[in-house]
Amino acid sequence: MQRSRGTVPVGRQTGEGNLDAGSEIDDPIAAAWDFQARAAEAWDERSRTSTSTWVPPIRRALVDRARNSTLGRFYPVTSHTALTFSTGPRHWLGEGEVLPVAIELVPEGLYVVRTRSVGTVLETADADEAVTEAERLAERLTLPAGDSFRPWLHS
Question: DSSP states of 95-130 as a string?
Fold first, then answer.
């Protein structure tokens, strides 16, 4: 299959959330954010109705705010409790670098903005404030060649 630049073959969302293989998306970053928004909504719903997780139902607000900021030009990368940003779709295969800033969720219902070099920079209950600080830090910080930030390795 020949691909045009900026187009990636992916599954297409069908009525029941199933994927129809072979469709294409012209903007893979937007598709990644769409996926994260759906996943965040599902996670928040689970957090509201389950006692089996400590993660507060605040992920969707964070994803929505980050997507509509300057961080929206990066690929969103999530772990169980953190949102980070990558310059490529598969950073774990060397296709991009993870920015040295992350926004983590903590049990108290706060967003915690962290960097590798400083650690915790801000704790806030406001997604707007957390993303604004992450934007500021992302503009200031640079990655050494071949380095990446993994918030789950930082204590």
Answer: BS-B-SEEEEEETTTEEEEEETTTEEEEEES-HHHH
